[in-house]
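User: Design a sequence. Structure:
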């Protein structure tokens, strides 16, 4: 069974999870370990992350910028649908529409509800024969109101590999469908990854979500990242803290890292220097050397 490392963010935005993940993946690969990255659930913006959109168009479906970077540095050739079973494509809201309709204040309140910005969601199911079924969930509520930047050519290009598309007109229904389908799809990918001849599964959470799986999974190491620091938490206590908070929030997706920090004490911490915006894996690896050595020692202990 592969050694499973979870990387999650202490802050909602710009924690540095992917930068740390790239350094770890590159370092472990260079030490001879077979690494497979996993991003169970993700969001990305088709407009502001247009480089990723171009990759999505080439491939014929959507996947996150983070899994693209981690897959490349890991030299992993597994399909994006397995590595990133659920991806939500975001469309930026059109501020001029809100100004024109005298709803300027609503522009900001709509930003706080991610369901009002999701254009389409891909949920990928992997069956026993490793065939992939791609379900697309299209947010007609957003499209019909014309309140966001939507390019139909792009949308059609990144949904080519969808086997079925469900159109949803209600945001509550949209949220329920995404969560219900995601739980099973992520579980199937987790089972498949455990069968692979890999040494390490490097799991990156999304935003500050404490638990991106929507089901139980055993972990070997938990790394919580904030700018300049990585905190190491014991996986058993971390998992228990998530379960305690889940009993309050009634959903694993509702638990953020800030909700469980009071229940935990890090067993180790590592200072991380800044990294140039042009992401060079070797540079990141060099700057997290102390953390990387610790991870290798933990892997070898097991």
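Assistant: Done.
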């Amino acid at each position: 069974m592969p050694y499973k490392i979870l990387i999650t963010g202490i802050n909602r935005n710009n924690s540095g999870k992917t930068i740390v993940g790239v350094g770890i993946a590159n370092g472990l690969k260079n030490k001879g370990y077979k690494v497979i990255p996993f991003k169970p659930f993700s969001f990305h913006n088709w407009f502001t992350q247009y480089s990723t959109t171009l990759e999505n168009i080439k491939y014929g479906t959507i996947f996150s910028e983070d899994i693209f970077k981690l897959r490349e540095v890991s030299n992993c050739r597994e399909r994006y649908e397995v590595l990133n079973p659920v991806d939500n494509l975001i469309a930026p809201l059109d501020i001029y529409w809100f100004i024109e309709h005298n709803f300027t204040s609503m522009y900001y309140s709509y930003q706080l509800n991610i369901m009002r910005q999701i254009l389409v969601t891909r949920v990928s199911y992997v069956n026993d024969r490793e065939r992939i079924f791609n379900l697309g969930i299209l947010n007609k509520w957003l499209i019909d109101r014309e309140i966001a930047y939507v390019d139909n050519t792009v949308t059609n290009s990144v949904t080519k590999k969808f086997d079925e598309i469900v159109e949803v007109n209600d945001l509550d229904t949209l949220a329920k469908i995404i969560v219900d389908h995601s739980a099973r799809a992520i579980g199937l990918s987790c089972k498949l990854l455990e069968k692979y001849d890999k040494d390490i599964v490097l799991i990156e959470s999304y935003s500050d979500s404490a638990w991106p799986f929507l089901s139980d999974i055993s972990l070997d190491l938990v790394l919580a990242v904030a700018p300049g620091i990585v905190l190491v938490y014991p996986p058993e206590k971390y998992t228990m803290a998530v379960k305690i908070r889940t009993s309050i929030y009634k959903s694993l997706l509702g638990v953020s890292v800030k909700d469980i920090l009071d229940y935990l004490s890090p067993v180790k911490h590592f200072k991380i220097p800044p990294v140039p915006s042009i992401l060079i894996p070797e540079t990141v690896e060099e700057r997290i050397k102390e953390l990387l050595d610790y991870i290798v020692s933990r892997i070898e202990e097991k």
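The chain has a mean pLDDT of 93. The first strand starts at residue 3 and ends at 9.
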